[in-house]
Specification:
Elements lengths: L15 E6 L10 E9 L4 E5 L12 H5 L4 E5 L17 H14 L5 E6 H13 L4 E7 L10 H6 L5 H6 L3 H11 L8 H9 L4 H12 L3 H9 L5 E6 L10 H7 L3 E6 L6 H4 L1 H14 L5
Parallel strand pairs: 3-4, 3-5, 5-6, 6-7, 7-8
Antiparallel strand pairs: 1-2, 2-4
Helix pairs in contact: 2-3, 3-9, 6-7
């Protein structure tokens, strides 16, 4: 089935919502959280996982492309987009990974293919190593932790004492500064794109979730899990990435036991937006053929 190529603009009025039970609280007393998602297409399920400070909006061009062959499911992570902002959650690596798995189970899916971007890709990798039976072909885009190349305000938001002050003063100007680093093609950052990104961060609860995700982000936990994992993954990197520099690919290569790696020329950190058609084709070929098809 062919779909009209039409980018998706994230909104509380589109897509669907379901409620998941948050992990870590036995006895049925856990806080519940509403998860916002969109789904399009038929075929094998393919989950798209955005990074911190984003929403499913980052996949707006890829969703209709991938939906020509797959049942694409793009969610807003817990704390972001139009999903809930739970108050009892620490937004730790395992909590975020477990929430991903709980979302898949609540959809009554036994397993999925998945694509994760940047820090969201790290949540996906953590989920993959903890629950390998839930994942088929996994693709991650420039995965890594908090780097010195990130804007100072982002790094300071992760600090225990400075974080709350930075959270209160995180403005649209700061969002623009961060996005400017994410695109290789500066014309991608239009007024419309900036407004869409800022909309879902323009509240105390949104910035609170971002602060705790940054504060409790532990990339070493992911690397340690990958050292003993036999689950394969496809790692893609934009060669002009200014957030997760290309040389960081070596860190992933050192720990991923069954990895396939590919770099994309003239692409920055957000190459899921800059190179949507190319990336959709590469994901499809990896799912179908593995290394021989890329």
């Amino acid at each position: 089935m062919a779909y009209l190529y039409r980018p998706i603009v994230n909104s509380d009025l589109i897509g669907e919502k379901l409620t998941i039970q948050l992990p870590g609280f036995p006895g049925g007393k856990a806080e519940k959280c509403s998860i916002h998602y969109v789904t399009l297409g038929e075929g094998e399920p393919l989950l798209l996982v955005h990074s911190l400070g984003q929403s499913l909006y980052t996949w707006r061009d890829m969703i209709p492309l991938l939906a020509e062959k797959y049942n694409v499911i793009a969610l807003d992570l817990v704390g972001f987009g139009f999903s809930g902002r739970p108050v009892s959650m620490n937004y730790s690596m395992d909590e975020m990974a477990d929430a991903l798995v709980e979302f898949i189970k609540t959809l009554k899916l036994d397993h999925v293919h998945a694509v994760g971007a940047s820090l969201g890709g790290m949540y996906l990798l953590r989920a993959m190593t903890r629950f390998p039976e839930m994942f088929d072909k996994v693709t991650v885009l420039c995965p890594g932790g908090i780097t010195k190349q990130m804007p100072k305000k982002i790094r300071r938001m992760a600090a225990p004492f400075l974080g709350p002050f930075v959270r209160e003063g995180y403005t649209k100007k700061d969002v623009r500064e961060a996005l400017q680093l994410c695109y290789y093609d500066s014309t991608m950052l239009t007024k419309e794109v900036l407004n869409e990104y800022f909309e879902t961060l323009d509240s105390y609860s949104s910035r609170q979730a971002l602060m705790y995700c940054l504060r409790n982000f532990d990339e070493e936990l992911v690397w340690e899990g990958l050292k003993t994992s036999e689950h394969p993954a496809f790692v893609l990197w934009g060669e002009e990435d200014r957030i997760q520099p290309f040389e960081n690919l070596e860190k992933v290569q050192a720990v991923l036991r069954r990895g396939e790696f590919f770099s994309v020329r003239n692409a920055g950190h957000f190459f899921q937006e800059e190179k949507a058609e190319l990336l959709s084709d590469m994901v499809d070929k990896y799912i179908l053929y593995g290394e021989d098809g890329v």
